[in-house]
Amino acid sequence: MADTNLIVDFEPIGKRVEAKAGITILDAIRQAGLPITADCGGLGLCGQCRVIVRQQLESLAPITPTELNWFTETELTAGYRLACEAVLLGDVRVDLPSSSLILGQRLQVTSNLYEDAPPDSQSDNIIQAYPLTLPAANIHDLRSDLSRAFDKLSEAYGLTNLTASPAVVRNLSPLLRQNQWQITALVRGQEVIGFLSPGKHPLGLAVDLGTTKIAVYLLDLTTGETLAAEGIPNPQIGYGEDVISRLVYAENSPEGSAILAQAVHTTLAEIAQTLAKNAGVSTQEIAEVCMVGNTAMTHLFLELPISQLAMAPYVPAASTPLEGRASDMGLPFANDCRVYIPSCVAGFVGADLVSMTLATGIGQDKRAVMGIDIGTNTEIVLALPGRKRMMALSCASGPAFEGAHIRYGMRAAAGGIERVRIIDGKPMIQTIGKNPPVGICGSGIIDAVAELRRIGAINYRGRFQETIPGVRLGKYGLEYLLVPSEESGSGEDISITQHDVNEIQLAKGAIRAGITVLLQTGGVQAEDLDEIILAGAFGTYLNLDTAIAMNLLPDLPLQRYRQVGNAAGVGAKQMLLSRRRREQANAISQQIEYVELTVYPDFRNIFAQSMLFYR
Amino acid sequence: MADTNLIVDFEPIGKRVEAKAGITILDAIRQAGLPITADCGGLGLCGQCRVIVRQQLESLAPITPTELNWFTETELTAGYRLACEAVLLGDVRVDLPSSSLILGQRLQVTSNLYEDAPPDSQSDNIIQAYPLTLPAANIHDLRSDLSRAFDKLSEAYGLTNLTASPAVVRNLSPLLRQNQWQITALVRGQEVIGFLSPGKHPLGLAVDLGTTKIAVYLLDLTTGETLAAEGIPNPQIGYGEDVISRLVYAENSPEGSAILAQAVHTTLAEIAQTLAKNAGVSTQEIAEVCMVGNTAMTHLFLELPISQLAMAPYVPAASTPLEGRASDMGLPFANDCRVYIPSCVAGFVGADLVSMTLATGIGQDKRAVMGIDIGTNTEIVLALPGRKRMMALSCASGPAFEGAHIRYGMRAAAGGIERVRIIDGKPMIQTIGKNPPVGICGSGIIDAVAELRRIGAINYRGRFQETIPGVRLGKYGLEYLLVPSEESGSGEDISITQHDVNEIQLAKGAIRAGITVLLQTGGVQAEDLDEIILAGAFGTYLNLDTAIAMNLLPDLPLQRYRQVGNAAGVGAKQMLLSRRRREQANAISQQIEYVELTVYPDFRNIFAQSMLFYR
After folding, report:
1. Which residue of B has its CA nearest to A319?
2. Rounded to two decimals, what is the model's pTM?
3. Into which CATH architecture does domain A203-341 fall?
4. Given CB 3.0 to 4.6 Å as the disulfide criterion, which of A245, A581, B187, B576 pairs with B206?
5. ipTM score here?
6. Residue of B nearest to A151 (CA)
7. CB contact under 8 A, B322 and A165
């Protein structure tokens, strides 16, 4: 019966899929393309992929020892299972708690940065569109269809020595005859990359391919206008939440690289369809894609070799700009549409950092500016134009700021605690969507730890102080109760544990140490900085007071900070539109000196110091 | 039971295949990749795909009315069937007569033309190979693998602004580490198209893609040496023997274009494997392909649109040089290996004519020269350098010269009658391989018709003269018996019918009319020609005396004729090796004026005259 298809209903989202008996619920979730949280990639090590099965219990294989480890008696009675452990035997309805699923997560696609107007000149456009009216073929004019188009491009626009691939020609002959010999040629450098029906503008996609989320923007390449935008979770999350676990999956699983690449290709095709539909256009009008991302993400996207990226000395396979073909990735765009990925700097300083640096103008004027993009890996760039230097590093800040590795942590989704204040010894919380609290998301954890330090519940080394009211001995050691079970949406206590505080210390210590090393490398003090720019979703939602209070960020006047939103996405839009911007980004990537933390003298000591709170 | 696989054994070649019940023997032959003759593409119209089933007769559906039409009582009793009509119901053994199968056919790959020495300079090479020894990556030198290679190409060879595709990078990182950081970079223009292990030379394939046969040559691109060569039948023959029937198949069958393209892609991959094996090299070292062929063949190969090629005014989709990607065609060559197809002149004057013109040097000196490539379509080029003109046309000479549409015709294979003399009223024959005669191949038919005219068995209009001994009234009208059934290998009489003579008249009339029109267009007489070059297999085996006697070729002294063999293949080799040669071919294609026969004044009259024999 192994070949029989079972029916699995995922609730509350109401998605029904067919699945083979013998696979796990996690496998079925992945097949369904649902973005499930699974830090460990499905090895039973992270306990993130919690699901609830309330009926048809006989449709699942028995609870495993691993699951016994992860759940309380109450949870098991309530039907909790780990999706990666529970094997399907029959039709079943599976509840996906919002804390496990990453739907509805805030995926920022906006920025307050100045966005480029349309390119100054036609020649600055990556894709140039030329309307053509051709003479019809007849017995006295037997030129081939392509020569007819080439001749007109030469006559009318002075373009010579053009080439076109077979794929482009494949489209030309029927299109010409459908449109009474009127057509728009899309030219990229010396190459005709596609033809459009008359009157159509070429479109483009700017993509910020993050480890957690993908932000996609659909632009009109002629006017520079953003027609539609959307943020969606990176579907690779189901194969490992952080970069390293995905590289391990790609290396060790059969076809691992191809599976990870295809997951993103498919998602990108889907979101392009959605954006095109919303904008009332066709994806076949998409003539160029510009994608930024960290080095591992762009390597996985292009299926580049990653063994050498996953072990010392962690070198990229390629760091210069690369161009893939949309058609090779199954993307239904214009015939020879390219996916342009700008230069990266190093194995862990990617094209996204270059894009952010471009969009924020760091290093383009005389001011000393630091740019920080906080994520699972945090990249930091420092420009000291007075000394004609620009340098960058990456620090492994981990996913704690995103709610992972935190006992009651969750991603930024409905019911996530995002603000915490402790007033007169009583915790006051605010949740996303004002839903009943079900867990703590990144900004909430930082708030909570900063407050615990403020009221002395933890000391400057981060140790809980039993004498402070609210600190208690819980199941997992000393902890501070934020929400009692009777007030929580999950029916469980929500507390901050000693382990949670330590995770936050590791994360903020890594970032703070990176800032210190970069300042030392540049030979300047934090006070010398004219500006610190915080990019990315986390940096935007961060409470600056709190971040400074917990010594995550240097203690500078708040007006020297600027929170800019998705700057990497803005840079991707600029590079989608403009040749000049691409050259500028390339120059930035070459100018940036990469600072390798692991060989920095005294790094361990700096890191240890940075984990402390101010006394 | 429709899903059950049957076993079909093809004899005498001993090939066993699995097939589904319900398909025809022709389908099974095609699936087996065997080159069966089937002029009509499997519609039961040509009677070519004869097979014999002697046992297990219950494994086939009953004989159809179409088959009753094509076979005599004796043949039916002997087990003859049409492969396109006979439906498989069970396991069966099928004999493929050599007259139906195109194995063992003479497929000329040689030429007596001077072949190019290796390109004069590295810069003339299409693919330039650069050996590199790179410093290993370490913590103090964190450049990406590609940048490391690019930097060395710049340092050691002065190459800058290079690009490489993701596919090339995919190969680089593992290869570098397997070869202790030694590697050979293959550069094409500004692009690195692949990397080889140290010491390897890049290889190339020159391909002459004919309607009937494919000639493939494996060359060392550094030394210019031909390492191996082979001629094989074009597998598209199973889908229609001539260009038009294949265009119709491509247009009217679901996925027809893709099926025809893939048939050649697969065959090319197989022959590349064979050639590489014979030469002791790997197909992954193949870094460039140069392919010539008639316009329809190259369009089908690249899956270009063909509707406009199949109907008036018959324009190509593209006529400029095109480059496909070997990887897009499933060819297991170097990563970014291109398939270069030179310019064609018109819908029925292809890159093969250009290549032949290049290789024979037509138009490169002061002499007036005509080049003729006889085939199903015959292309003729005329150079009149004194008048600075070069012109070409194509005439639909049909497949009669290849033994098709001839009652007892066959392709040039073992047992085919290739020479005929009638001495003292008695026909003397010579067969290929000295096997017992089973049919008449092209050169034999021409001989026979010329001899029939010489002895007066046919008059100048081609009509049989009943009064001449040997002329008799046969089943199909007046005919001349060449081989009585008791002496033939097939047990049948082999004769030349009135219909056969008319087919030959149509074929030779078309070619002779083309020659006349081209001479008229150039304003010269045949006597003004310094040379007539006959290219291609048929032109090489042609008996010149006979061809002149039957007014197929102009009556010039024999020393003005030159039979050069596969000149198009030689031109393909030259263009595989040399940039200069490609430019030269491109110039030729632009210089050639295309002459459209159908609008030529008085063409019908010229054609009618040309069908006559000399009085």
Report:
1. B144
2. 0.81
3. 2-Layer Sandwich (3.30)
4. B576
5. 0.81
6. B320
7. yes
